[in-house]
Design brief:
heterodimer; A: Elongation Factor Tu (Ef-tu), domain 3; Rossmann fold; 3 domains; six-stranded antiparallel beta sheet; 9 helices; B: mainly alpha; 17 helices; about 60% helix
């Protein structure tokens, strides 16, 4: 599922390889050794992280799990619940999406799994579910996100899940299962129909082998949506539980309201399908793209990325929600504001994420 | 004659020239629409070949020179591989990537914003001197620093001075050390000489050039020779030869772009209130193509399609051949001259101009289709003095792919 982030960029690993690379690039300048090595094996590069599709496992009619073998530079120590960026080349163009990692973190892992549901009209998600064959090389962005379980886990847990929102929760359940540390947990899982319920058998198996795991299934096409008032009898002690909710936006809005009404919103952890750029924008200004020589007037609600695209500048972009850092450009002068948290960037030659920032007065970017 | 109004020069009516502009826009839109997997495969394949040549060249020279038996063939083959790698990297890959021709792929590894090419000039300076100054002000006297690069007198409208008597020699030096001539190009030595250059900017640029130049020199003239041990001298010479190969070749190709007789010059009056359609027309009149097979075009970065490149600097170069057919049809329809010829003829004309213009105008006759306008001292302009970029020209305009983003 798609996810949101407010965290800072993950640091690239600083292994010895970095030092070797710096020494060897005297031979490969202006390129990096990686640029040659990835011609031998596409996974041998840390410049843009890559992965190879090892297997595509159909989960339901419209969802599949991609087993991906990441290349150099990947770290397997993600926290259960985090997401990773995945880029695929469609018609020659790299397109990025972020999906929760559904596999449990492994110290000496070799693959990761993400589970994707093909959304109607979702060109990329459909391509991921139906268009990838084993052997395809994809691009990856390191795991990120703060929708994670603490270690050790809270004593009492409640998972409220809708549709493909099950994927980060599955990573949590698998981790708890593997570590043998599954606490008293209730999983409420809504799916349109039984056929479209992702991980149905695996969850059944988990419930059968763990007495402390209670699973409620709700088929919303026939039984209707979850009424949050019903929580009182479905899970009478819900107010005492750390709650992890993931699913469609309206569902999460309703849950947030319900928890706020009960005054326990600090017990609620959310993962959204898509980002809501609700923060205060900048006051706008004219944005100059130095190398292309274009200037565009932009208001405080238009991101620098959108402004550049409107001006016809070939802006790089990835997830368009501040996760993957593909869109990062150098801010030569001026100031921009991060729509997610209001943070301002105004250092000369500071790298900024164009997809989540707006202009605060006039500014110049190096593209 | 330097042209001061392209529309009047071509005897085109307002309607005709606007129609021409629309038809050229339509070609751009069609090509942008049809960019896809095959184009991406083309540039990726080419990059693989070029990097393969680099590795093959370095290894052949390093290992093949160790034994006396293989030395001569190793030097011949290794130098050739290395030279071809440098030519491909600079011409069909680096130049075109930095124009943003492949930005649509959204691949940070093949993107104009961070591509650094395998030559002494820092990419950032190239993007200013070439993508901006040259492509925006193509062949406008005093505005386009590529008319002779501040070293040669290439237009009769440029004033003659005794310095120009040495042109054949400067030309020889420029071609041999072309990489370094290009490296210094954005400094604009003419403006430095006249004390008009901002010293702070100059220092920054020099530092950039020094840093990049040092790495290039270190690689070709220190590290790789050192790795060859006793054969260091052989490898050093081979590396130097490959650099000169690349220098001579890129010099010839670039001189064929705007210096053959058919390529016209323009006065500053032309760029006042120039419309998009007039800008297109200036690009056609100011550039010259050369003919050849597909291999020649790839080795020259598709700059044999200089006219098409100037009309659409940011469309993928592998499409110029098909675009050229349509541009020629338009030129025929509107009776616009379309300058082309075999490579040797185009370069021969450029060379003739270099030699002829080393002496005062009155000693020689012009080979341009029109007589020259009277010579006038045209001081070189700084960026501040150049007219602000006209937004609608859209030299770098690219369709955004909003249609894909929704998915």
């Amino acid at each position: 599922m798609t996810a949101t982030s407010t965290t800072t960029p993950a640091e690239r690993p600083r292994l010895t390889w970095d030092r070797v690379r710096r020494a060897v690039d005297t031979l490969t300048t202006p390129l990096l050794p990686d640029d040659y090595l990835n011609l031998v094996n596409p996974l041998w590069t840390t410049r843009e992280l890559r992965g190879r599709i090892e297997e595509v496992v159909p989960e339901t009619e419209d969802a599949a799990t991609l087993i991906i073998r990441p290349g150099w530079g990947w770290r397997f120590d993600h926290h259960p619940g985090q997401y990773a960026g995945i880029g695929v080349q469609v018609e020659g163009r790299w397109q990025w999406r972020s999906y929760s990692i559904s596999s449990a973190p492994q110290q000496r892992g070799r693959t990761i799994a993400i589970t994707v549901r093909a959304m109607p009209e979702g060109f990329i998600s459909s391509h991921l579910v139906g268009g990838l064959t084993p052997g395809t090389i994809v691009r990856l962005a390191l795991p990120d996100g703060d929708f994670v379980l603490p270690d050790p886990p809270p004593a009492k847990l409640l998972f409220l899940v809708g549709g493909s929102g099950v994927t980060p929760v599955m990573a949590m359940l698998r981790t708890l299962d593997r570590r043998g540390s599954l606490p008293d947990a209730v999983l409420h899982y809504s799916s349109p129909t039984e056929e479209r319920m992702i991980f149905k058998e695996e969850i059944e198996r988990l419930a059968a082998s763990h007495d402390r795991l209670t699973v409620h299934r709700l088929y919303t096409d026939t039984e209707g949506m979850l009424e949050l008032a019903d929580l009182d009898h479905l899970c009478p002690d819900w107010r005492e539980r750390e709650t992890y909710a993931c699913g469609p936006g309206p569902m999460l809005d309703a849950i947030t309201e319900h928890f706020e009404a009960a005054g326990i919103e600090d017990r609620l952890h959310l993962e959204r399908f898509s980002i809501a750029l609700g923060g205060d924008g900048g006051e706008g200004g004219s944005i100059t793209f130095r190398n292309t020589g274009k200037t565009v007037e932009s208001d405080g609600a238009t991101t620098v990325l959108e402004a550049g695209e409107q001006a016809g500048v070939g802006m790089p972009f990835g997830c368009r929600m501040g996760i993957c850092h593909t869109c990062t450009l150098t801010l030569v002068s001026g100031s921009v504001r991060d729509l997610r948290n209001g943070e301002e960037f105004n250092q000369p030659n500071e790298p900024v994420q164009t997809c989540v920032t707006t202009a605060v007065g006039d500014c110049t970017l190096d593209i | 004659m330097a042209i001061s109004d392209v529309q009047e020069y071509m005897h085109l009516t307002d309607d005709e020239i606007e129609q021409l502009g629309r038809e050229l826009d339509a070609i751009r839109a069609e090509v942008e629409e049809s960019r896809g997997a095959a184009d991406a495969a083309y540039i990726n394949r080419l990059i693989r070949i070029q990097r393969g040549l680099a590795v093959a060249g370095r290894l052949t020279l390093m290992l093949g020179t160790q034994s006396r038996k293989t030395r001569v063939p190793a030097v011949l083959a290794g130098t050739t591989f290395l030279g071809l790698h440098k030519i491909l990297e600079n011409m069909e890959i680096g130049h075109n990537v930095m124009h943003g021709q492949w930005d649509w792929m959204n691949d940070p590894e093949i993107h104009s914003s961070n591509w650094e090419w395998d030559t002494a000039q820092p990419a950032e300076q190239w993007k200013h001197s070439h993508n901006y100054v040259h492509h925006q002000f193509t062949n406008v006297l005093g505005y386009d620093n590529d008319i002779g690069y501040g070293i040669l007198r290439m237009a009769r409208e440029q004033t003659w001075s005794p310095y120009n008597l040495g042109q054949p020699v400067y030309n020889q030096l420029l071609s041999t050390f072309f990489e370094w001539g290009v490296a210094l190009h954005d400094l604009d030595i003419e403006r430095i000489r006249q004390g008009e250059k901002d010293p702070k900017e100059m220092k920054r640029q020099l530092k950039q050039i020094f840093r990049k130049g040092r790495r290039q020199i270190l690689k070709d003239y220190v590290v790789y020779p050192a790795l060859a041990g006793k054969q260091w001298k052989t490898v050093l010479k081979a590396n130097a030869t490959s650099n000169i190969m690349r220098n001579l070749w890129s010099y010839v190709i670039i001189f064929c772009g705007h210096f053959p007789d058919g390529a016209m010059h323009f006065t500053e009056e032309e760029i006042e209130d120039e419309t998009r359609a007039e800008w297109y027309l200036r690009q056609i009149l100011g550039a010259a193509n050369f003919k050849g097979g597909p291999l020649l075009h790839i080795m020259s970065g598709n700059l044999g399609f200089q006219i098409e490149h100037h009309l659409y600097p940011d469309l993928p170069s592998n499409r110029y051949a098909e675009i050229s057919v349509r541009v020629q049809e338009l030129c025929e329809k509107y009776d616009i001259p379309y300058t082309t010829g075999p490579l040797h003829q185009q370069y021969g004309q450029a060379l003739r101009t270099i030699i002829k213009l080393s002496v005062p105008n009155s000693w020689t006759s012009s080979d341009k289709p029109e007589p020259p306008t009277p010579t006038r001292d045209r001081r070189r302009r700084s960026d501040e003095e150049r007219p602000a970029r006209i937004q609608q020209l859209g030299v770098w305009s690219r369709r955004t792919s909003k249609e894909h983003q929704a998915s």
